[in-house]
Amino acid sequence: MSGRRRLDWLGLTPEPERELPTAVAALRAPSPPARKTPVPAADGTAGGRAAPEGVAAEGVAAEEVAAERRRVQRLVLRGSRHSWLRYLAEVTDLVTGVAEGSRPGDRAAALLAAEVVLDHHRMLIGLPGTGYGRTTGDRIALERAVRTLRSPTRTGGSR
Q1: Where are the domains of the chain?
Q2: Can you give the three-state secondary structure of the chain, one letter per residue?
Q3: What does the pLDDT look like over 21-62, one tens digit per residue?
């Protein structure tokens, strides 16, 4: 391609750009919001994966969501495949920390982020280059995190 930027990674799916800012802002929040219900879908249905566009997750400041949205927008508009995968690896670290219990965080936001990034990484198999192979470890970690985050948590006494 002789000096031209490869842009094929931008055509994978719009979900990360649309759904990650709210979830990642919730994961970066200093204290996890108390959430008893799943995050509603972008279309407003209960079974979805993301909060409606422009609506911050419960307990997460709108400014934090806006800052994360700007970060993702900068990566998409000015970044490279490498910088995008580095960002998704950072999200993977946040998610796995919540799933493993090594960091506090909103489990619903972690599950949303895990599913979005995992879907993205699985689609890399259709692109030229080393992206799919490079994300193997993250895919394995995300699959494990999704299983953990989908299982009910036990609190209180034993049954």
Answers
A1: 11-150
A2: CCCCCCCHHHHCCCHHHHHHHHHHHHHHCCCCCCCCCCCCCCCCCCCCCCCCCCCCCCCCCHHHHHHHHHHHHHHHHHCCHHHHHHHHHHHHHHHHHHHHCCCCCCHHHHHHHHHHHHHHHHHHHHCCCCHHHHCHHHHHHHHHHHHHHHCCCCCCCCC
A3: 999 999 998 764 454 444 444 444 444 454 434 334 566 789
